[in-house]
Design goal:
- A hairpin with a 5-residue loop joins strand 1 and strand 2.
- The protein has a domain of 73 residues.
- The N and C termini lie far apart (53 Å).
- It is built from 4 helices and 2 strands.
- It is elongated, with a radius of gyration of 22 Å.
- Helix 2 crosses helix 3.
- The protein is mainly α and 124 residues long.
- The longest helix has 18 residues.
- Strands 1-2 form a two-stranded antiparallel ribbon.
Length: 124
């Protein structure tokens, strides 16, 4: 057996994983990593995000790309100290957000929008 790759554990396949582990050659050293799967943002979340920032951007006088950049600067920016000691600013891409992070981002945007008098109408 070549190993077990990208096995997603579910309540119904535990025995299957145990069987695969039992069948591994014990004379070979194996490396096992178990990590919690973090779901990437969903396509629905992405669609809603772009509708939200497009509408809020129009309210503020930005086009959608400008608003996307403004949201990144405000909510997704971070600093990193480079090997030479210089501190650089970066913006995390929304494509790297998981489901929870995408929910939180949209909640932040809507909170700021509401404070400015904008209410997002999801039906449009």
């Amino acid at each position: 057996m070549d190993g077990i790759k990208n096995f997603q554990l579910t309540p119904t396949n535990r025995k299957s994983l145990k069987g695969m582990l039992d069948n591994l050659d014990v004379t070979v050293a194996w490396l096992v990593n178990v990590t919690q799967k973090k779901s990437k943002r969903s396509l629905d979340q992405n669609d809603r995000y772009w509708k939200l920032i497009t509408a809020f951007g129009e309210f503020c006088g930005y086009d959608k790309d400008e608003m996307h950049q403004e949201v990144g600067r405000r909510f997704l920016s971070y600093e990193k100290t480079m090997p030479n000691g210089e501190i650089k600013k970066f913006i995390k891409s929304t494509t790297k957000l998981n489901v929870k992070e995408m929910v939180e981002l949209q909640e932040h945007i809507e909170r700021v929008a509401n404070q400015q008098g904008f209410i997002f109408d999801e039906t449009h």
